[in-house]
Amino acid sequence: MTHPAGPEARARGTNEARVPLSRERIVLEALRVVDEEGLQALSMRRLGSELGVEAMSLYRYVSGREDLLEALVSHLTDGLRRTAQTPVSAEDGWQAYIQWLAHEVRAVAHDHPQLFPLVATRHPAAPWLRPPLRSLEVVEDFLSVLTDQGFGDEAAAATYRAFTSFLVGHLLLEASQMGAPMVPDEPLDEGDERSTSALALDDFPTIQRLEPFLSEDRSDEEFEISLEELIDRIERQLR
């Protein structure tokens, strides 16, 4: 449904029309709309109205709604990559890195609860990667930290699977408690149809080396282990 722009929106559009349109500006405005009104309010027509331009003008910068949603998710997850400003280093140990990363992902869920279900459910960069750590750069960081700290390849892959399951399980529930739908009302795309061998992994040597372990389906085993650990924890609390 098209939302008529009120006086404030029209005034904002008039002022913003003087600012050159860009992909970044479109993504930031889309993020504002979703944060305030949810994904169902986001359309190219609505976004054009908020930016003070015709909807067709947006297609110079985003190819469509699917591309826009992908850009929104990437915008939120780019902050999970290690940089010179990241407050943990290799000397702090893998535990400190995992704690930092978990709290960063949780901050995304709390700051953008309407969008987090999309972060947690959209197809990652490769079929054997798992949300919410969905980009090659973030996964390369994660696996490199573990292997540099002495983890074997299989242990690092198992830790990645356990960590992502923990994040998705906890944070989808937290986002839901803040009013977000458990599953976004968005049809998932078909994912990356390229074969694994066609992915450009030359810049991600740790992922390339661990691919056989990352692509294993151990969901039954992991479910049983997690269930046993939960039961053990409950039993300890009752002692």
Automatic annotation (TrEMBL):
Occurrences of domain HTH tetR-type (ranges): 20-80
InterPro entries from the UniProt entry: Homeodomain-like_sf, HTH-type_TetR-like_transc_reg, HTH_TetR, Repressor_TetR_C, Tet_transcr_reg_TetR-rel_C_sf
One term of GO molecular function: transcription cis-regulatory region binding
UniProt entry keywords in alphabetical sequence: DNA-binding, Transcription, Transcription regulation
Gene3D superfamilies referenced in this protein's UniProt entry, alphabetically: Homeodomain-like, Tetracycline Repressor, domain 2
Membrane-crossing residue ranges in chain numbering: none
GO terms under biological process: negative regulation of DNA-templated transcription
Keyword Transcription: yes
Coiled coil spans: none
Residue ranges the UniProt entry marks as DNA-binding: 43-62
Keyword Cytoplasm on entry: no
PANTHER family linked to this entry: HTH-TYPE TRANSCRIPTIONAL REGULATOR RUTR, TRANSCRIPTIONAL REGULATORY PROTEIN
Stated name of the protein: TetR family transcriptional regulator
Upper classification of the organism: Bacteria, Bacillati, Actinomycetota, Actinomycetes, Micrococcales
